Amino acid sequence: MPAPNVHYDVLSPVHFLLRSAMVFPDKVAVVYGDRRRTYSEFLERVYRLAGALQKMGIGKGDKVAYICPNTPPMLEAHYAVPLLGAVLVSVNIRLSANEVAYIIDHSDAKAVFVDNEFADLVAPMRDRLPQVSHFVNICDVSDATLLPGPAYEALLAEQAPTPVPLAVEDELEVITINYTSGTTGLPKGVMYQHRGAYLNAIGEQLEFGTTAHSVYLWTLPMFHCNGWCFTWGITAMGATHVCLRKVVPEEIFRIIAAEGVTHLCAAPTILIGMSAYATEHTIRLDHRLEIMTAGAPPAPTVIQNMEGIGANITQTYGLTEVYGPHSVCQWQRKWDHLPDEEKAQLKARQGVPYIVAHHMDVVDPLTMAPVPRDGKTMGEIVMRGNNVMLGYYKDPKATETAFEGGWFHSGDLAVMHPDNYAQIMDRKKDIIISGGENISTVEVENVIFRHPDVMEVAVIPVPDPKWGEVPKAFVLPKPGRQPDAQEIIAFCKQHLARFKAPKYVAFGELPKTATGKIQKYKLREQEWKGHERRVN
């Protein structure tokens, strides 16, 4: 290792644990069920895991895959793996066996750690993974499949908690690879670097207002953008991580009360479920709960409902390619006394760049010129800065396309308001062009969300012989409610220009990703089968 530099140090989020273990050695760092571990115990376990990985031959640049829900081993991996200069590959636990095998193989993972509830995803695919030299079983549930290899706790018990120095010499070294959902083809491996992860983790805490007294509940998957970098950020503050294996409203509210949870992150679909459960069981929070939401534009109604039970919602926006959130709907005191509905409308905007992000704009994607700040002219959201990915792993062509013009292209269509706050109107592939008129599916969804019988909604373009395409709404009613199609259409015509109202309405469950995003591409595939457009 080079000699220390008096005016420079490598920015790596691994440093956060070393600092918090020094400052808060006896403070509870991790809670999981009835287990509690202090920061000094957390660090000792990370050292044990790092030592075990070294014995496996894992070192700088090697890939280590984890298939694990939001339990302590997943959190420990976020420190032990990058401590060695190795690369953590967090795999979505809700993918199919074929998708999991593709990610393990494509990432060149040498070791795979598997929670035994999900071992059946890996077991039949082992013959397709010749580069994997070690499997480790995280035995968190009983009567589940085990892979050939040691149990996680036994592996740690065999190691001494000997301190391991950080092996990273260049802060632009890869720290993690996060695979996209692959909605338009094979998933792409998004490469994060130590510097970007460090800065984004700090940025999240600045925007969310966490402190050493905060208690953070893991309702957001750690495998999704490394938990928006909260895996590192909560540790940086010396706050408490509360791990949660399964995200269901009843358990969320129980733990909020039992552990005094102050902060959590969640996609809008989780908030919808929490709101419905709270309404059904007349729940009102007895302390302020800060919630950060992103992943899809939340309807103002969802925000208003959650704030009605005592939460405060912060809307953020980003993508896997920018470490999770990149912008925040920064609240301003001058809005405090506005009516609740108007506040919810403001909070539904995607806002302004993070303090650590700086650069975000809405531009004409052909000329790259910024659109007028009029709240009407649509363009594409583009971003650049420290928290933009290094690129796609082993995919230079896709990387070049994503970075065209010196910006990362989000694929999201938005307007820029006169106060410089951005607001998403649609994905490029979702915008409806009906008879030459642009219709924002998000605008239509926000109206339908206001209908008292609607739980969830997705709007997509469907083929039409006269107009080319028209809106169709897919609605999941609230339990016990039975709205009909004409009722929904008439409601939209009351609150929208008539041509924007859906021509068709279907009822039932909506397909979702593991992080709660509605998979509109699946709806488009079924509606456009046999037609020339709109498959992707």
From TrEMBL:
It comes from the Bacteria. PROSITE patterns: AMP_BINDING (PS00455). Residues 443-517 form the AMP-binding enzyme C-terminal domain. InterPro entries: AMP-bd_C, AMP-bd_C_sf, AMP-binding_CS, AMP-dep_synth/lig_dom, ANL_N_sf. Its EC number is 6.2.1.3. Keywords: Fatty acid metabolism, Ligase, Lipid metabolism. Residues 19-393 form the AMP-dependent synthetase/ligase domain. It holds the Pfam family AMP-binding. Gene3D superfamilies: 3.30.300.30, N-terminal domain of ligase-like. GO terms for molecular function: long-chain fatty acid-CoA ligase activity. NCBIfam families: PRK06187.1 (NF004837), PRK08162.1 (NF006020). Belongs to the ATP-dependent AMP-binding enzyme family. This is Long-chain-fatty-acid--CoA ligase. It comes from Desulfatitalea alkaliphila.
